[in-house]
């Protein structure tokens, strides 16, 4: 992809310290500038992506009353189905033109966590749906851990600083369906301009274009990964933790031109979250006289609750 810097995970995994350091420098610089990279040689293979899209499309093709069996407002949309128009960007009231599903962490080996996380919902109409989703979840989680290791080194922390906070973390895999646009959207968009809530987001190629990123100079630029790349961006939790050193860049999904309204769009972001008890207090490595502490202390769980209320998922 030419708009966004590209990095290769095999450099970070290499025995060659020069290649490893070069990956750290490149991703660090990109996240201090545009806040997005595209990543090659991650752990998610094409076949799994293909299987996942097949399952996801089959799910969204189910009749609405079937899908709504899996919608539970009690859990603030954190698992299962969230129906069309429910979520909106922070600061907006108009709902996005999308419906989505959430797969969440299964921390069976850690009772203190499994009690706090809602259970994933099993789609009984589609026997492969849950397994396929959770396989992709694991591969994206594994990829994200290495990206966070590189960022820890860039910031001047121990390489494994994030490992224990993201192990059993509250991450979410979100298959999204943007249906064909049938009537004049009247100002509504597929996804309004927003920063992501979490630490980092990993996005496999979508079924069509539409994702745009707000560059420093105020221009919206297209972010369309090559087939073998993941787009990975910084979210608000990491921006806050690093006292604005790493940038959570605003992005959106625009409506297509009218002649393409009939084409639906599918996209599957993975939101890497830490455990809810992780403090997001600005790191001392990122605070100095030129960069005074910009945020109050807060935990990841408290921050998430605030934001779920602000985007219409939590009462
Ligand atoms: O659909 C996309 O390509 C991106 C969606 C997105 O930014 C989000 O759900 O946070
Ligand atoms: Fe996003």
UniProtKB/TrEMBL annotation:
MF terms in GO: metal ion binding; oxidoreductase activity
InterPro entries per the UniProt record, alphabetical: DIOX_N, IPNS-like_FE2OG_OXY, IPNS-like_sf, Oxoglu/Fe-dep_dioxygenase_dom
Pfam families named in the record: 2OG-FeII_Oxy, DIOX_N
Signal sequence residues: none
Domain Fe2OG dioxygenase: 168-274
Entries under PANTHER family matching the protein: FI07970P-RELATED, OXIDOREDUCTASE, 2OG-FE II OXYGENASE FAMILY PROTEIN
Protein name per Swiss-Prot or TrEMBL: Flavonol synthase
């Amino acid at each position: 992809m030419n708009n966004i810097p590209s990095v290769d995970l095999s450099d970070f995994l290499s025995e060659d310290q020069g290649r490893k350091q070069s990956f750290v420098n490149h991703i660090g610089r990109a996240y201090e500038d545009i806040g997005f990279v595209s990543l090659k040689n991650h752990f998610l293979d094409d076949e799994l992506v293909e299987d996942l899209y097949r399952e996801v499309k089959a799910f969204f093709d189910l009749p609405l009353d079937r899908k709504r069996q899996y919608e539970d407002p009690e859990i603030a949309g954190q698992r299962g189905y969230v129906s069309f128009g429910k979520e909106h960007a922070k600061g907006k009231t108009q709902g996005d033109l999308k419906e989505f599903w959430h797969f969440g962490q299964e921390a069976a080996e850690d009772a203190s966590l499994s009690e706090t996380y809602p259970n994933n919902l099993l789609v009984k109409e589609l026997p492969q749906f849950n397994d396929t989703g959770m396989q992709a979840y694991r591969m994206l989680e594994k990829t994200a851990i290495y990206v966070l290791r590189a960022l820890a080194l860039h910031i001047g922390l121990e390489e494994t600083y994030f490992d224990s906070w993201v192990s059993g973390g509250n991450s979410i895999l979100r298959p999204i369906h943007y249906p064909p646009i049938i009537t004049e959207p009247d100002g509504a968009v597929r996804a309004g301009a927003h920063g992501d809530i979490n630490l980092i987001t990993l996005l496999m190629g979508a079924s069509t274009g539409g994702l745009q990123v707000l560059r420093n100079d105020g221009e919206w630029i297209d972010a369309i990964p090559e087939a073998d790349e993941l787009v990975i961006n910084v979210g608000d939790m990491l921006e806050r933790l690093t006292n604005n050193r790493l940038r959570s860049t605003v992005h959106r999904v625009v409506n297509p031109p009218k002649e393409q309204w009939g084409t639906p769009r599918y996209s599957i972001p993975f939101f890497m979250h830490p455990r809810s008890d992780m403090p997001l207090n600005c790191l001392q490595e990122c605070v100095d006289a030129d960069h005074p502490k910009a945020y109050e202390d807060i935990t990841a769980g408290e921050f998430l609750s605030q934001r779920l209320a602000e985007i219409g998922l939590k009462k």
